[in-house]
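Why does residue order matter? Because the sequence determines the fold. Keep that principle in mind as you read this record.
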Amino acid sequence: MGEQKTVKNNKIGVLGAVSYIIGNIIGSGIFIAPTSVLIQTNSIGLSLVVWIVAGMIATLGSFCYVELGTSIRASGADFAYLCYVKAYPVAFAFMCVGCALQYPATVAIHSQTFSEYIFKGFDIELESETAQYFAKKLLGFSLIRKHLFAEHSFVVQL
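Structure:
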């Protein structure tokens, strides 16, 4: 009997690519920063102008990622793009910093923001130690979910 190999298709569709780019470029900053923008501008109209300009800049950044992704057909995103231009030490340093600092910090910020909004949404007032405890638990759950169910992340993101 011959062994059958299962080949995993590492391709995403247009909708998955668009949701990934929007999530990567815009991220959760849109949920974290509104109050600080409103406080700094001290005007609702000016804060809307700031958000529109920031949205246009994010759109331009996403177009850059789309162009890179369609031009350089190698797996690895930023690492592959830096390797394509022969910047191997920069690519290595970029990925080390990303894996050790940037990605865990991003997940921590997402988890903390999500937990704070959930608590506010249900009118739950917690002591700061309790809120930190639940935020840490939510962070751990998010990390476990992300690593165990990575192939389903596009469905969750949509």
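The chain has two domains: 1-71, 75-152.
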